[in-house]
Amino acid sequence: MTDSTAGRAAADGPAPAVIRTRGLTKRFRGGQLAVDGLDLTVPRGSVFGFLGPNGSGKTTTIRMLMGLIAPTSGTATVLEAPMPQSVTAVLPRVGALIEGPALYGFLSGRDNLVRYDSADPAADPRTRDRRVAEALERVGLAAAAGKKARAYSLGMKQRLGLAAALLQPRELLVLDEPTNGLDPQGMREIRALVREVAADGTTVFLSSHLLDEIEQVCTHAAVMSRGRLVVQGTVAELAAGARGRLVVQTPDRELAARVLADHGVTDLRTTGDRLDGEPPSGAADDPDGHLPKLCAALVGAGVRVRSFGTERGTLEDAFVALTGEGFDVAG
Amino acid sequence: MSPGEAAVLPRTAAPGGRPRTALGVLALFRSELSITFRRLRTIALLAILAALPVLIGVVIKVEVGDSGGGGPAFMAQVTENGLFLVFTSFVVTLPVFLPMAVGVVAGDSVAGEAGSGTLRYLLVAPAGRTRLLAAKFTAALSFCAAATLTVALSALATGAALFPVGRVTLLSGDSISFWAALLRTGLIAVLVAASLAGLVAIGLFVSTLTGSGIAAMATTVGLVITVQILDGIPQLHSIGPWLFPHYWLSFADLLRQPAYLHDVLRNLGLQGLYAAVFGTAAWARFTSRDITS
Questions:
Q1: CB atoms < 10 A from the CB of B78, how many?
Q2: Does residue B21 carry a pLDDT above 50?
Q3: What is the ipTM of this complex?
Q4: Nearest C-alpha in B relative to A29
Q5: pLDDT attached to residue B22
Q6: Which residues pair with A41 in a beta bridge?
Q7: pLDDT tier at A323 (50, 70, 90 boundaries)?
Q8: Cβ proximity of A26 and A216 under 8 Å
């Protein structure tokens, strides 16, 4: 009851939430608290990055949103209907890739899609063959559609899983680590596909442990750590929390470091021919006043400057600032 | 499945929602049947079941000289009428081979999908847990029918090829025409298939308990063997009539004139009871379970 009023209230606003959780908590039978009081709001039309190290509760949250596991307490609302009670009404409008693809090895790629499409009672059997062919075409598997799925590479399996999520026009696409196990080319293709789907107006909820992936694709992000939500907002807001760094490329590292230190640059780090550090206070407010002077000072001291500039703050910096821990730590 | 589900059903007509159609709902049942019978494992099981009557027929043909008696029921009649090879084959396969094959298919039905991860994709499709379970149950029952039919047809073909066929002398001494006997054989095949319904429900229930197809298959097949051993212990005769294999061989009572139906009906009732109890247990378990695989 509370939910339907919440749904109406959200519909009045400019961007109603596609996913909304309130105090969502899951404690497994062993007593392990996987998700702890999660309050998540995913605006319609966003590409929402769900970020956190492995074991931080991302997949458990996604499973609760998809009605696969029941929350211990709290509520989850997907497309304005409560989950898991509304799975039959909501899930035909949602495409999902959860914890990697799972396929029938003895069936061809095409027959795998036919199988999953048959499981949706709202899917029209008369258009099934056409939709399957289109989905295969979209992920670039049309040529391999007749091959048995057990002969597929991991990248092909991942694409087939994605094709299953794209069998219908969806309002929401939930992708759990969609680029896991892919080569860089495959990652690029999947990200291009995500952008394309988002451009069609589908809200994309993308979980990842790769910060640069979230930065490249997402408009919004939430960060999980040890079952709790650390922060959520737009990617720009989150990245703004981290200060930019000054970056200089030069073969004369020692000399450059000395000059920079003299001009108030702190926290200097050297990696190969690359030197980076915290710009002097005041540089952020008046970059045109400080930075050209710094560069001139370097050149004046005889440093062979190959490149000079600032790098904007990354989500990784923001994450480290927020949690005080490195990102690859398993929770 | 739950009161909440009924309350939100009108939402399916909302913009972006697609209505469910009867064809769409039935598609999963068709898909389940095709998945079951396209598996190499299913085909191998059916091939073994088809080979058994041929083996029995050949052995009887070769050993025809020394008619020392003994062996499974109806063995002696086979040499006089090939149709009896069907009944002999049922007597041989019903205690072990048929339930083993059914145990493999029913035990693996849900657990196998959970183990391979395909279960979560079926459920988010969304197949609906009740509908998926119903489709699994239907497919496993169809396998019972297919397995029984395979034994019957193979035995019939082998019997007709190796032995004479013609008028059949029933166990009660009456003689009926071959076609009347064939009709009874068909009825008996239906009865044999129905005898496995209880086991299908048990296998399905076991299958909802675990995420390992192998474990579920082994448990179900182990259960069939254990229960038959219990059924054979004289001290436990009071529980015997409540064990699902107890009346399995009652199909022979249809070979009397008039047919003796007491045990046949007890068998059907018992199978119905097991199907209801374990089917409900499987449903209760599956609809409330966390899918973490």
A1: 27
A2: yes
A3: 0.85
A4: B290
A5: 84
A6: A20
A7: low
A8: no
